[in-house]
Amino acid sequence: MTARKTAVVVLAAGKGTRMKSALPKVLHPIAGRPMIHHVLAATAELAPERTVVVLGRDMEPVAQAVAPAAVAVQDPPLGTGHAVLAAAEALDGFDGDVLVVYADTPLVTPATFRRMLERRRAGDEPAVVVLGFRPADPAEYGRLVVRKNRLKRIVEFRDADGEERAIGLCNAGLMAIDGRHALDLLRAIGNDNAKGEYYLTDIVAVARERGLESAVVEAPEDEVMGVNSRGELARAEAVWQRRRRAHVMEEGVTLADPATVWFSADTVLGRDVAIGQNVVFGPGATVEDNVRIEAFCHIEGARVASGARIGPFARLRPGADIGADAHIGNVVEVKKAVVEKGAKANHLAYIGDARVGAGANIGAGTITCNYDGFAKHFTDIGAGAFIGSNTALVAPVKVGDGALVGAGSTISRDVPGDAIAVARAEQKQIPQGAARFRAKHARTKD
Ligand code: UD1
Ligand code: MG
């Protein structure tokens, strides 16, 4: 079998009114990534020769989001068959396989696309391969009419009779079409149906009239679910998260309670990472080997090097770069800061716009005062420095290597290496003061 080329057409011209959103439906995120990007990432694995996204009028934000993919505008939207034809220019003269996918069906895997393409090119080489599934509730999906093992036609729910509505095998909507026939077949589709639309599904009957066969490839329901409402968006998110949890465990990550750990599409985890309960990864997190993340952490835009320990209850914000074997403990927030190898901030601290040198120790309650209401300033803490509890480091400020800052200090001038700095009011002591105070109040008390 010679390798054939693939062209991908992503249908996204539908309005998505049921989302009740100012944001176009296909830009709503799943695992922190717009739905349509999941579709483009999955089809990109097929190394298609070309990809065209079909959009409706006024969908400029989507066009920008999918760049550099080519965009075709379908205006007005007259049905799924009409939508594929909006990409006709890009398909003209293309003799490979045309894979039609929906932008609002974001969970289909590259493996399923490959099965569709393989079926297209195998055995009797059907001109059209339709992705089918058997939903628990077939509801209003189009039904696949199969006789003697052959797909005869697809009937939309609204156009189906009682017998056809009883069919359990439904149309997921996705198709692989022989590019040598695709445009001819699509142009022959009419709109004489309940909705007065040009149905892509009619391509099966049109092909048959020309002696071309069609076949079905089946997928699990979870994979082909469409997103039309916020409820379905949450369901798709849940399916995606379930899959990713299973995957990371297969790859050598321990999840104490998988259902409570949430990943982003771009989360990267090394081997022997152990993650406690209720941990959330926002976009841009990379965690290297042998890291322990205790319960209730939120990690986003951060890198954690091997052997580090994070949490419980830690927050790593964008630009947090935690070095090997470092410890970030409970109620510690790190933003745009490098915490070098073996440094520790174990309790109640804010480290922002800073460097914490190797092996430095940050006491409980330490705050880098990085913002003066106008601009952000940098705090530089040297290797092996010791910052006493409840220290305010008023940036820009530098604490040298090996310096020691006394607890409760407000440090606004640079501290030289190996120096001690204490910046707090002198302690005042009044011998017997407390006893006299109590005695005075005892007299006035009735
Ligand atoms: C379609 C199928 C149905 C299948 C179901 C699966 C047809 C006629 N019916 O129905 O058999 O069971 O999907 O979910 O194909 N779109 C456009 N332009 C249009 C119309 C739609 O780009 O003019 C896009 C939408 O943005 C969406 C996709 O095509 O991504 C599917 O459209 P939708 O209206 O949801 O089709 P269904 O009626 O659900
Ligand atoms: Mg639909």
Structural commentary:
By secondary structure, the chain is of the alpha/beta class. It has two domains: 6-224, Spore Coat Polysaccharide Biosynthesis Protein SpsA, Chain A (Alpha-Beta Complex), CATH 3.90.550.10; 230-421, 3 Solenoid (UDP N-Acetylglucosamine Acyltransferase, domain 1), CATH 2.160.10.10. 21% of the residues lie in helices and 30% in strands. It is built from eleven helices and 34 strands. The strands form five sheets. It has a 20-stranded parallel sheet that branches. Strands 5-4-1-6-10-7-11 form a seven-stranded mixed sheet. Strands 27-30-33 form a three-stranded parallel sheet, with no helix packed on it. Helix 2 links the parallel strand 4 (50-55) and strand 5. The radius of gyration is 31 Å and the shape is elongated. The model has no long low-confidence stretch (mean pLDDT 96). The protein binds uridine-diphosphate-N-acetylglucosamine and magnesium ion (MG). The site of uridine-diphosphate-N-acetylglucosamine has 27 residues, from strand 1, helix 3 and strand 10.
Outline the secondary-structure elements.
Elements: E1 6-12, E2 29-30, E3 33-34, H1 35-44, E4 50-55, H2 60-66, E5 70-73, H3 80-85, H4 88-91, E6 97-102, H5 110-121, E7 128-133, E8 143-147, E9 150-155, H6 162-165, E10 170-178, H7 182-187, H8 203-209, E11 214-218, H9 221-224, H10 230-250, E12 254-255, E13 261-262, E14 268-269, E15 274-275, E16 279-281, E17 286-287, E18 292-293, E19 298-299, E20 303-304, E21 309-310, E22 315-316, E23 320-322, E24 327-339, E25 344-356, E26 361-362, E27 367-369, E28 379-381, E29 386-387, E30 392-394, E31 397-399, E32 404-405, E33 410-411, E34 420-421, H11 433-444
Parallel strand pairs: 1-4, 1-6, 4-5, 7-11, 12-15, 13-16, 14-17, 15-18, 16-19, 17-20, 18-21, 19-22, 20-23, 21-24, 22-24, 23-24, 24-25, 25-26, 25-28, 26-29, 27-30, 28-31, 29-32, 30-33, 32-34
Antiparallel strand pairs: 2-3, 6-10, 7-10, 8-9
Magnesium ion binds next to loops.
